[in-house]
Amino acid sequence: MPHTSSVPLFWRLKKSKYMMIGSKCQTCGSVFFPPRVICAKCRSRGKVADHQFTGRGVIESFTIIRAAPEGFENAAPYAVALIRLDEGTSISGQVVGSIEDVAAGKRVRPVFRRITQDGDDGLIHYGIKWEIDDGSAGTEA
Amino acid sequence: MSGEEIGIVGYGCYVPRFRIKVEEIARVWGEDADSVKSGLAVEEKSVPDMDEDTITISVAAAKNAILRAGISPSSIGALYIGSESHPYVVKPSGTVVSDALGMGPDIMVADFEFACKAGTAGVQCCYSHVKAGLADYAMAIGADTAQGRPGDALEYTAAAGGVALIMGRDPLAVLEGTYSYTTDTSDFWRREGQDYPSHGARFTGKPAYFKHVISAGKGLLARLNAKPTDFQYCVLHMPNGKFPATAAQQLGFTMQQLEPSLVVRKMGNCYSGSSMMGLCAVLDVAKPGDRIFMVSYGSGAGSDAFAWRVTDKIAERRERARKAADYISDMKYIDYATYVRMRGKLKGD
Protein backbone atom coordinates (compact mmCIF):
# COMPACT_ATOMS: atom_id res chain seq x y z
CA MET A 1 0.00 0.00 0.00
CA PRO A 2 1.19 3.59 -0.49
CA HIS A 3 3.00 5.08 2.48
CA THR A 4 1.31 8.06 4.05
CA SER A 5 4.26 9.99 5.39
CA SER A 6 7.60 11.18 4.12
CA VAL A 7 10.56 9.14 5.37
CA PRO A 8 13.05 12.08 5.30
CA LEU A 9 10.52 14.29 7.13
CA PHE A 10 10.46 11.74 9.92
CA TRP A 11 14.27 11.71 10.14
CA ARG A 12 14.36 15.48 10.43
CA LEU A 13 11.90 15.54 13.33
CA LYS A 14 13.53 12.60 15.14
CA LYS A 15 15.30 14.58 17.87
CA SER A 16 12.10 16.24 19.04
CA LYS A 17 9.91 13.16 18.56
CA TYR A 18 12.28 10.73 20.33
CA MET A 19 13.94 12.84 22.99
CA MET A 20 11.74 15.90 23.54
CA ILE A 21 14.38 18.31 22.32
CA GLY A 22 12.67 21.64 21.74
CA SER A 23 14.15 25.10 21.59
CA LYS A 24 14.82 28.03 23.90
CA CYS A 25 15.41 31.68 23.14
CA GLN A 26 18.73 32.69 24.71
CA THR A 27 17.59 36.34 24.67
CA CYS A 28 14.24 36.19 26.50
CA GLY A 29 14.17 32.63 27.90
CA SER A 30 10.99 31.54 26.10
CA VAL A 31 10.83 27.79 25.44
CA PHE A 32 9.19 26.12 22.45
CA PHE A 33 8.01 22.60 21.74
CA PRO A 34 8.01 21.57 18.96
CA PRO A 35 11.19 23.55 18.29
CA ARG A 36 11.12 26.88 16.49
CA VAL A 37 13.98 28.54 14.60
CA ILE A 38 12.75 32.08 15.35
CA CYS A 39 11.63 33.28 18.79
CA ALA A 40 7.91 34.13 18.77
CA LYS A 41 8.56 37.08 21.14
CA CYS A 42 11.90 38.53 20.11
CA ARG A 43 11.60 37.75 16.40
CA SER A 44 14.82 38.72 14.62
CA ARG A 45 16.47 39.90 17.90
CA GLY A 46 16.17 36.46 19.47
CA LYS A 47 18.80 33.73 19.47
CA VAL A 48 17.23 30.25 19.54
CA ALA A 49 19.06 27.07 20.58
CA ASP A 50 18.15 23.42 21.26
CA HIS A 51 16.60 22.76 24.67
CA GLN A 52 16.11 19.40 26.38
CA PHE A 53 12.65 19.15 27.96
CA THR A 54 12.05 16.71 30.84
CA GLY A 55 8.66 15.90 29.37
CA ARG A 56 7.04 16.06 32.79
CA GLY A 57 3.97 18.19 33.31
CA VAL A 58 0.31 18.47 34.27
CA ILE A 59 -2.83 17.62 32.31
CA GLU A 60 -4.70 20.88 31.69
CA SER A 61 -7.55 19.31 29.74
CA PHE A 62 -8.22 16.13 27.79
CA THR A 63 -10.61 14.42 25.42
CA ILE A 64 -11.39 10.78 24.71
CA ILE A 65 -11.05 9.85 21.04
CA ARG A 66 -13.66 7.25 20.14
CA ALA A 67 -13.94 7.89 16.39
CA ALA A 68 -10.22 7.66 15.61
CA PRO A 69 -8.52 8.88 12.42
CA GLU A 70 -7.03 6.47 9.89
CA GLY A 71 -4.18 4.47 11.38
CA PHE A 72 -5.38 4.82 14.95
CA GLU A 73 -8.68 2.90 14.73
CA ASN A 74 -7.43 -0.10 16.70
CA ALA A 75 -6.27 2.09 19.59
CA ALA A 76 -9.64 3.78 20.24
CA PRO A 77 -10.89 4.73 22.73
CA TYR A 78 -7.78 6.65 23.85
CA ALA A 79 -7.08 9.91 25.66
CA VAL A 80 -5.45 12.96 24.11
CA ALA A 81 -4.51 15.66 26.60
CA LEU A 82 -3.28 19.21 26.61
CA ILE A 83 -0.23 19.01 28.85
CA ARG A 84 1.40 22.01 30.53
CA LEU A 85 5.09 21.07 30.64
CA ASP A 86 7.08 21.98 33.76
CA GLU A 87 9.33 24.17 31.62
CA GLY A 88 6.42 26.41 30.74
CA THR A 89 5.01 25.59 27.34
CA SER A 90 2.15 23.23 26.55
CA ILE A 91 1.79 20.34 24.14
CA SER A 92 -0.94 17.93 23.08
CA GLY A 93 -0.23 14.25 23.38
CA GLN A 94 -1.69 10.80 23.92
CA VAL A 95 -2.00 9.52 27.48
CA VAL A 96 -1.48 5.74 27.71
CA GLY A 97 -3.13 3.33 30.13
CA SER A 98 -6.76 3.27 31.20
CA ILE A 99 -8.84 6.20 30.02
CA GLU A 100 -10.64 6.15 33.40
CA ASP A 101 -7.40 7.24 35.09
CA VAL A 102 -7.03 10.41 33.01
CA ALA A 103 -8.10 13.66 34.71
CA ALA A 104 -7.25 17.36 34.54
CA GLY A 105 -4.69 18.32 37.17
CA LYS A 106 -2.92 14.96 37.23
CA ARG A 107 0.82 14.89 36.73
CA VAL A 108 2.22 12.99 33.75
CA ARG A 109 5.64 11.77 32.62
CA PRO A 110 6.87 10.77 29.18
CA VAL A 111 7.05 7.20 27.85
CA PHE A 112 8.47 5.99 24.53
CA ARG A 113 5.84 4.20 22.47
CA ARG A 114 4.75 3.33 18.95
CA ILE A 115 2.80 6.23 17.46
CA THR A 116 1.65 4.75 14.14
CA GLN A 117 2.89 2.74 11.18
CA ASP A 118 2.71 3.19 7.44
CA GLY A 119 0.65 0.18 6.43
CA ASP A 120 2.04 -3.35 6.63
CA ASP A 121 5.31 -2.63 4.81
CA GLY A 122 6.15 0.98 5.72
CA LEU A 123 8.02 2.49 8.64
CA ILE A 124 6.92 2.18 12.24
CA HIS A 125 6.86 5.63 13.82
CA TYR A 126 7.93 5.94 17.44
CA GLY A 127 7.74 8.87 19.80
CA ILE A 128 6.70 10.23 23.15
CA LYS A 129 3.34 9.64 24.80
CA TRP A 130 2.50 10.30 28.42
CA GLU A 131 1.51 8.19 31.41
CA ILE A 132 0.04 9.22 34.74
CA ASP A 133 2.97 9.95 37.10
CA ASP A 134 2.59 7.97 40.31
CA GLY A 135 5.84 9.40 41.69
CA SER A 136 7.80 6.15 41.48
CA ALA A 137 11.56 6.26 40.93
CA GLY A 138 13.43 5.63 37.74
CA THR A 139 11.15 7.08 35.15
CA GLU A 140 12.85 10.28 34.10
CA ALA A 141 12.93 10.92 30.36
CA MET B 1 37.60 2.67 39.73
CA SER B 2 38.02 -0.53 41.69
CA GLY B 3 40.82 -2.14 39.71
CA GLU B 4 40.21 -4.32 36.73
CA GLU B 5 36.99 -5.94 37.89
CA ILE B 6 34.37 -5.95 35.14
CA GLY B 7 30.68 -6.60 35.52
CA ILE B 8 27.26 -4.99 35.72
CA VAL B 9 27.45 -1.26 36.49
CA GLY B 10 23.72 -0.70 35.96
CA TYR B 11 20.66 -2.87 35.41
CA GLY B 12 17.06 -2.06 34.59
CA CYS B 13 13.91 -3.89 33.70
CA TYR B 14 10.48 -3.14 32.31
CA VAL B 15 7.30 -5.23 32.40
CA PRO B 16 4.13 -4.05 30.62
CA ARG B 17 1.20 -3.40 32.94
CA PHE B 18 -1.48 -5.75 31.63
CA ARG B 19 -1.91 -9.35 32.87
CA ILE B 20 -4.06 -12.25 31.75
CA LYS B 21 -4.70 -15.16 34.11
CA VAL B 22 -4.17 -18.79 33.15
CA GLU B 23 -7.83 -19.35 34.18
CA GLU B 24 -9.02 -16.88 31.54
CA ILE B 25 -7.07 -18.52 28.70
CA ALA B 26 -8.12 -22.02 29.86
CA ARG B 27 -11.78 -20.90 29.98
CA VAL B 28 -11.72 -19.94 26.30
CA TRP B 29 -10.10 -23.19 25.17
CA GLY B 30 -12.14 -25.47 27.48
CA GLU B 31 -9.12 -26.68 29.43
CA ASP B 32 -8.88 -27.39 33.14
CA ALA B 33 -7.23 -24.30 34.61
CA ASP B 34 -6.03 -26.02 37.76
CA SER B 35 -4.19 -28.73 35.85
CA VAL B 36 -2.66 -26.16 33.49
CA LYS B 37 -1.54 -24.02 36.44
CA SER B 38 -0.03 -26.92 38.33
CA GLY B 39 1.54 -28.33 35.16
CA LEU B 40 3.26 -25.05 34.27
CA ALA B 41 3.60 -23.48 37.75
CA VAL B 42 2.50 -20.19 36.17
CA GLU B 43 -0.49 -18.15 37.37
CA GLU B 44 -0.62 -15.23 34.93
CA LYS B 45 1.40 -13.55 32.22
CA SER B 46 2.18 -9.99 31.14
CA VAL B 47 0.63 -8.54 27.98
CA PRO B 48 2.02 -5.49 26.18
CA ASP B 49 -0.21 -2.53 25.32
CA MET B 50 -1.01 -2.08 21.64
CA ASP B 51 1.69 0.57 21.26
CA GLU B 52 4.41 -1.44 22.99
CA ASP B 53 6.95 -3.68 21.27
CA THR B 54 10.52 -4.87 21.74
CA ILE B 55 11.88 -1.41 20.89
CA THR B 56 9.70 0.51 23.38
CA ILE B 57 10.29 -2.11 26.10
CA SER B 58 14.05 -1.89 25.44
CA VAL B 59 13.98 1.91 25.78
CA ALA B 60 12.14 1.70 29.12
CA ALA B 61 14.50 -0.95 30.53
CA ALA B 62 17.58 0.88 29.24
CA LYS B 63 16.51 4.15 30.89
CA ASN B 64 16.39 2.37 34.25
CA ALA B 65 19.81 0.78 33.66
CA ILE B 66 21.34 4.16 32.76
CA LEU B 67 19.83 5.73 35.89
CA ARG B 68 21.28 2.98 38.06
CA ALA B 69 24.71 3.24 36.43
CA GLY B 70 24.68 7.02 36.83
CA ILE B 71 26.47 7.53 33.50
CA SER B 72 25.86 9.60 30.40
CA PRO B 73 24.11 7.64 27.61
CA SER B 74 26.74 8.90 25.15
CA SER B 75 29.50 7.15 27.13
CA ILE B 76 28.05 3.74 26.17
CA GLY B 77 30.11 2.34 23.30
CA ALA B 78 28.04 -0.68 22.29
CA LEU B 79 24.39 -1.73 22.27
CA TYR B 80 23.27 -5.27 21.49
CA ILE B 81 19.58 -6.19 21.65
CA GLY B 82 18.62 -9.84 21.80
CA SER B 83 15.04 -10.68 20.87
CA GLU B 84 12.94 -12.99 18.74
CA SER B 85 10.31 -10.28 18.27
CA HIS B 86 12.27 -7.43 16.70
CA PRO B 87 9.61 -5.17 15.07
CA TYR B 88 11.53 -5.13 11.79
CA VAL B 89 13.03 -8.14 10.04
CA VAL B 90 15.46 -5.76 8.31
CA LYS B 91 16.32 -2.60 10.32
CA PRO B 92 17.95 -3.01 13.69
CA SER B 93 15.92 -2.30 16.83
CA GLY B 94 19.15 -0.93 18.31
CA THR B 95 19.22 2.02 15.92
CA VAL B 96 15.93 3.34 17.31
CA VAL B 97 16.83 2.56 20.93
CA SER B 98 20.25 4.22 20.60
CA ASP B 99 18.82 7.45 19.16
CA ALA B 100 15.85 7.49 21.55
CA LEU B 101 18.27 7.48 24.49
CA GLY B 102 20.94 9.77 23.03
CA MET B 103 23.57 7.04 22.96
CA GLY B 104 24.78 7.48 19.39
CA PRO B 105 26.20 8.06 16.94
CA ASP B 106 29.59 6.88 18.29
CA ILE B 107 28.37 3.41 19.13
CA MET B 108 28.50 -0.21 17.92
CA VAL B 109 24.96 -1.53 17.44
CA ALA B 110 23.57 -4.90 16.38
CA ASP B 111 20.50 -6.99 16.96
CA PHE B 112 21.06 -10.52 18.21
CA GLU B 113 18.95 -13.61 17.64
CA PHE B 114 19.26 -16.87 19.55
CA ALA B 115 15.72 -17.62 20.76
CA CYS B 116 15.55 -16.95 24.50
CA LYS B 117 19.28 -16.54 25.09
CA ALA B 118 19.97 -13.73 22.63
CA GLY B 119 20.11 -11.24 25.52
CA THR B 120 22.76 -13.15 27.46
CA ALA B 121 24.78 -13.64 24.26
CA GLY B 122 24.83 -9.83 24.16
CA VAL B 123 26.04 -9.71 27.76
CA GLN B 124 29.02 -11.89 26.83
CA CYS B 125 29.89 -9.62 23.88
CA CYS B 126 29.59 -6.51 26.05
CA TYR B 127 31.84 -8.04 28.70
CA SER B 128 34.40 -8.88 26.00
CA HIS B 129 34.28 -5.34 24.60
CA VAL B 130 34.96 -3.79 28.00
CA LYS B 131 37.71 -6.31 28.77
CA ALA B 132 39.35 -5.68 25.40
CA GLY B 133 39.22 -1.91 25.89
CA LEU B 134 36.90 -1.35 22.93
CA ALA B 135 34.33 0.40 25.11
CA ASP B 136 34.18 1.88 28.62
CA TYR B 137 30.57 0.80 28.89
CA ALA B 138 28.49 -1.59 26.77
CA MET B 139 24.78 -2.33 27.05
CA ALA B 140 23.07 -5.67 26.41
CA ILE B 141 19.29 -5.91 26.27
CA GLY B 142 17.08 -8.97 26.27
CA ALA B 143 13.48 -8.07 25.40
CA ASP B 144 10.50 -9.75 23.81
CA THR B 145 6.81 -9.50 23.14
CA ALA B 146 6.40 -13.24 22.81
CA GLN B 147 3.49 -14.71 20.89
CA GLY B 148 1.90 -18.14 21.20
CA ARG B 149 -0.46 -19.52 18.60
CA PRO B 150 -4.05 -19.22 19.94
CA GLY B 151 -4.92 -22.47 21.67
CA ASP B 152 -1.29 -23.66 21.81
CA ALA B 153 0.30 -24.55 25.16
CA LEU B 154 2.70 -21.62 24.65
CA GLU B 155 -0.18 -19.17 24.89
CA TYR B 156 -0.30 -19.62 28.67
CA THR B 157 3.27 -18.42 29.16
CA ALA B 158 4.39 -16.31 26.14
CA ALA B 159 4.76 -12.89 27.79
CA ALA B 160 6.38 -9.48 27.37
CA GLY B 161 9.19 -7.73 29.21
CA GLY B 162 12.79 -6.67 28.90
CA VAL B 163 16.02 -6.15 30.79
CA ALA B 164 19.06 -3.99 30.10
CA LEU B 165 22.48 -4.65 31.65
CA ILE B 166 25.36 -2.19 31.32
CA MET B 167 28.79 -3.78 31.54
CA GLY B 168 31.76 -1.77 32.72
CA ARG B 169 34.33 -1.30 35.44
CA ASP B 170 33.42 -0.37 39.06
CA PRO B 171 30.52 -2.85 38.91
CA LEU B 172 27.67 -3.58 41.31
CA ALA B 173 28.08 -7.25 40.34
CA VAL B 174 31.41 -8.66 39.14
CA LEU B 175 31.36 -11.26 36.36
CA GLU B 176 33.49 -14.07 37.81
CA GLY B 177 33.14 -16.36 34.82
CA THR B 178 31.00 -17.34 31.85
CA TYR B 179 30.69 -20.49 29.75
CA SER B 180 28.40 -21.55 26.91
CA TYR B 181 27.15 -24.90 25.63
CA THR B 182 25.65 -25.08 22.12
CA THR B 183 24.34 -27.86 19.83
CA ASP B 184 22.05 -28.18 16.81
CA THR B 185 18.90 -29.27 18.64
CA SER B 186 15.65 -28.21 16.98
CA ASP B 187 13.13 -27.89 19.80
CA PHE B 188 11.49 -24.57 18.89
CA TRP B 189 11.72 -22.44 15.74
CA ARG B 190 9.92 -19.90 13.58
CA ARG B 191 10.40 -19.69 9.82
CA GLU B 192 10.57 -16.39 7.93
CA GLY B 193 7.10 -14.86 7.47
CA GLN B 194 5.38 -17.05 10.05
CA ASP B 195 3.43 -15.27 12.80
CA TYR B 196 3.85 -17.96 15.42
CA PRO B 197 6.62 -20.37 16.39
CA SER B 198 6.47 -24.14 16.11
CA HIS B 199 7.90 -26.47 18.72
CA GLY B 200 8.79 -30.08 19.43
CA ALA B 201 6.16 -30.42 22.19
CA ARG B 202 7.42 -32.94 24.78
CA PHE B 203 10.88 -32.99 23.21
CA THR B 204 11.50 -29.40 24.37
CA GLY B 205 12.41 -30.76 27.81
CA LYS B 206 15.04 -33.44 28.32
CA PRO B 207 17.11 -33.24 25.09
CA ALA B 208 16.76 -29.46 24.83
CA TYR B 209 16.24 -27.31 27.96
CA PHE B 210 17.61 -29.72 30.54
CA LYS B 211 20.56 -31.01 28.52
CA HIS B 212 21.82 -27.51 27.71
CA VAL B 213 21.07 -25.76 31.02
CA ILE B 214 22.66 -28.56 33.03
CA SER B 215 25.67 -28.96 30.71
CA ALA B 216 26.37 -25.22 30.74
CA GLY B 217 25.83 -25.04 34.50
CA LYS B 218 28.11 -27.98 35.25
CA GLY B 219 30.68 -26.68 32.76
CA LEU B 220 30.92 -23.33 34.52
CA LEU B 221 31.05 -24.85 38.00
CA ALA B 222 33.93 -27.06 36.86
CA ARG B 223 35.81 -24.17 35.28
CA LEU B 224 35.42 -22.05 38.41
CA ASN B 225 36.18 -25.03 40.65
CA ALA B 226 32.99 -24.08 42.50
CA LYS B 227 30.02 -25.95 43.93
CA PRO B 228 26.33 -24.97 44.28
CA THR B 229 26.70 -24.22 47.99
CA ASP B 230 29.21 -21.46 47.12
CA PHE B 231 26.29 -19.41 45.74
CA GLN B 232 23.48 -17.63 47.59
CA TYR B 233 21.22 -17.50 44.51
CA CYS B 234 20.49 -19.54 41.40
CA VAL B 235 18.79 -18.02 38.33
CA LEU B 236 17.72 -20.16 35.37
CA HIS B 237 15.78 -19.51 32.18
CA MET B 238 12.06 -19.78 32.97
CA PRO B 239 9.92 -21.17 30.15
CA ASN B 240 7.55 -22.07 33.01
CA GLY B 241 7.88 -22.51 36.76
CA LYS B 242 8.55 -26.24 36.67
CA PHE B 243 11.58 -26.53 34.38
CA PRO B 244 13.92 -24.27 36.39
CA ALA B 245 12.91 -25.97 39.66
CA THR B 246 13.78 -29.39 38.22
CA ALA B 247 17.00 -28.20 36.57
CA ALA B 248 18.15 -26.39 39.72
CA GLN B 249 17.67 -29.59 41.71
CA GLN B 250 19.61 -31.62 39.12
CA LEU B 251 22.45 -29.10 39.29
CA GLY B 252 22.52 -29.38 43.09
CA PHE B 253 20.85 -26.08 44.00
CA THR B 254 18.02 -25.80 46.52
CA MET B 255 14.60 -24.16 46.06
CA GLN B 256 15.71 -21.50 48.58
CA GLN B 257 18.50 -20.49 46.19
CA LEU B 258 16.13 -20.45 43.20
CA GLU B 259 12.96 -18.99 44.70
CA PRO B 260 13.80 -15.22 44.64
CA SER B 261 14.33 -15.36 40.84
CA LEU B 262 11.08 -17.16 39.93
CA VAL B 263 9.33 -14.15 38.39
CA VAL B 264 7.72 -16.44 35.79
CA ARG B 265 4.78 -17.29 38.06
CA LYS B 266 3.37 -13.77 38.00
CA MET B 267 4.51 -12.53 34.59
CA GLY B 268 5.12 -15.55 32.35
CA ASN B 269 8.13 -16.11 30.12
CA CYS B 270 9.48 -12.94 28.50
CA TYR B 271 11.83 -15.04 26.34
CA SER B 272 15.12 -13.14 25.79
CA GLY B 273 14.46 -11.22 29.00
CA SER B 274 13.55 -14.26 31.11
CA SER B 275 16.73 -15.27 32.94
CA MET B 276 17.88 -11.61 32.92
CA MET B 277 14.59 -10.65 34.66
CA GLY B 278 15.29 -13.32 37.27
CA LEU B 279 18.74 -11.78 37.75
CA CYS B 280 17.16 -8.31 38.20
CA ALA B 281 14.81 -9.68 40.87
CA VAL B 282 17.81 -11.15 42.70
CA LEU B 283 19.96 -8.00 42.37
CA ASP B 284 16.99 -6.11 43.88
CA VAL B 285 17.43 -8.06 47.14
CA ALA B 286 21.05 -9.33 47.18
CA LYS B 287 23.68 -8.22 49.69
CA PRO B 288 27.30 -7.29 49.00
CA GLY B 289 29.39 -10.45 48.76
CA ASP B 290 26.49 -12.65 47.61
CA ARG B 291 27.28 -14.88 44.64
CA ILE B 292 24.68 -15.50 41.93
CA PHE B 293 24.72 -18.47 39.55
CA MET B 294 22.79 -17.92 36.32
CA VAL B 295 22.08 -20.02 33.21
CA SER B 296 20.05 -18.86 30.22
CA TYR B 297 18.59 -21.11 27.56
CA GLY B 298 17.85 -20.46 23.91
CA SER B 299 16.08 -22.97 21.70
CA GLY B 300 17.96 -24.28 18.77
CA ALA B 301 19.82 -24.76 21.19
CA GLY B 302 22.28 -23.33 23.68
CA SER B 303 22.86 -22.04 27.19
CA ASP B 304 25.07 -19.29 28.61
CA ALA B 305 26.16 -19.72 32.23
CA PHE B 306 27.37 -16.83 34.40
CA ALA B 307 28.74 -16.45 37.92
CA TRP B 308 28.23 -13.00 39.48
CA ARG B 309 29.54 -11.57 42.77
CA VAL B 310 27.62 -8.64 44.23
CA THR B 311 29.66 -5.66 45.44
CA ASP B 312 28.97 -2.88 47.93
CA LYS B 313 27.85 -0.64 45.05
CA ILE B 314 24.52 -2.46 44.95
CA ALA B 315 22.81 -0.79 47.91
CA GLU B 316 22.79 2.75 46.56
CA ARG B 317 22.41 2.03 42.84
CA ARG B 318 19.42 -0.29 43.05
CA GLU B 319 17.31 2.44 44.68
CA ARG B 320 17.72 4.73 41.66
CA ALA B 321 15.07 2.95 39.55
CA ARG B 322 11.95 0.82 39.80
CA LYS B 323 12.55 -2.78 40.82
CA ALA B 324 11.27 -5.94 39.15
CA ALA B 325 8.75 -6.49 41.96
CA ASP B 326 7.43 -2.92 41.46
CA TYR B 327 6.69 -3.61 37.79
CA ILE B 328 5.25 -7.06 38.45
CA SER B 329 2.87 -5.82 41.18
CA ASP B 330 1.78 -2.69 39.25
CA MET B 331 -0.71 -4.44 36.98
CA LYS B 332 -4.21 -4.62 35.59
CA TYR B 333 -6.07 -7.77 34.54
CA ILE B 334 -7.64 -8.04 31.11
CA ASP B 335 -9.99 -10.64 29.65
CA TYR B 336 -9.23 -12.89 26.67
CA ALA B 337 -11.17 -10.73 24.21
CA THR B 338 -9.15 -7.65 25.17
CA TYR B 339 -5.94 -9.71 25.04
CA VAL B 340 -6.74 -10.93 21.53
CA ARG B 341 -7.42 -7.36 20.39
CA MET B 342 -4.29 -5.93 22.04
CA ARG B 343 -2.01 -8.58 20.57
CA GLY B 344 -3.27 -7.90 17.07
CA LYS B 345 -4.86 -11.31 16.70
CA LEU B 346 -8.18 -9.56 16.00
CA LYS B 347 -8.17 -6.93 13.31
CA GLY B 348 -10.77 -4.44 12.12
CA ASP B 349 -10.90 -3.11 8.58
How would you describe the overall organization of this protein?
The complex is a heterodimer of chains A (141) and B (349). By secondary structure, chain A is mainly beta. Helix content of chain A is 9%, strand content 39%. The longest helix of chain A has 6 residues, at 7-12. Chain A is globular, with a radius of gyration of 16 Å. Chain B has 2 domains: 6-172 and 314-342, 3-Layer(aba) Sandwich (Peroxisomal Thiolase, Chain A, domain 1), CATH 3.40.47.10; 174-310, Peroxisomal Thiolase, Chain A, domain 1, CATH 3.40.47. Chain B has helices at residues 22-29, 33-40, 54-69, 93-101, 118-132, 205-224, 242-251, 255-258, 264-267, 274-283, 314-317, 324-329, 336-342; strands at 6-14, 18-21, 44-47, 76-82, 108-112, 137-145, 160-169, 173-185, 188-189, 198-199, 233-236, 291-295, 300-310, 332-333. Chain B is globular. The A-B interface holds A 14, 18-19, 73-75, 96-98, 111-115, 124, 126, 129, 136-141 and B 12, 17, 49-53, 55-56, 59-60, 63-64, 67-68, 87-88, 96, 99-102, 319-322, 326, 332, 341, 344, 347-349.
Features:
heterodimer, A: 141 residues, mainly beta, OB fold (Dihydrolipoamide Acetyltransferase, E2P), 2 domains, five-stranded antiparallel sheet, three-stranded antiparallel sheet, 2 helices, 8 strands, 39% strand, globular, B: 349 residues, alpha/beta, Peroxisomal Thiolase, Chain A, domain 1, nine-stranded mixed sheet, three-stranded mixed sheet, 13 helices, 25% strand
